[in-house]
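Issue 218. Parser rejects a valid record. Input:
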Amino acid sequence: MSDEITSLLELRPFPFRALAARAGAGGAGSCELLLAALMVARLLDGAVPPNALPLQARQARSAAARTWLATLALPAGTRAVLARAIDATGTDDPTALREAAGTVLQLVTPALDLPARTELRRVIGRIPLVS
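Output the parser choked on:
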């Protein structure tokens, strides 16, 4: 088996346990927002090193997530912020990705506890800086 396939099959700990727990705990009106934030975090994780997927795979994931996002009961402005981040994960534009992810972090920070914020900040911190 090639090293690439072996590395894809390796088990690694789920990086968003606190965010998932927070989304599951929900609260009045925040459950769907936090589920969407979890989706953005997972897409980000697959868009940046060391877990970056090929562009074609990220585009497919982004399109599927965008369809899923449309099923959530979210205010239009909130949906637009989340959609920009989801779309950015399907590109090779780290500037757009960093800006969109940062806006999501600002949007959801009031609903997150410290461990969940830390998980989201950690994956955003992995977005490559453009010089």
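Fixed in the parser; the record now loads. The helical segments are 3-9, 17-25, 31-45, 55-69, 76-88, 94-108, 114-125.
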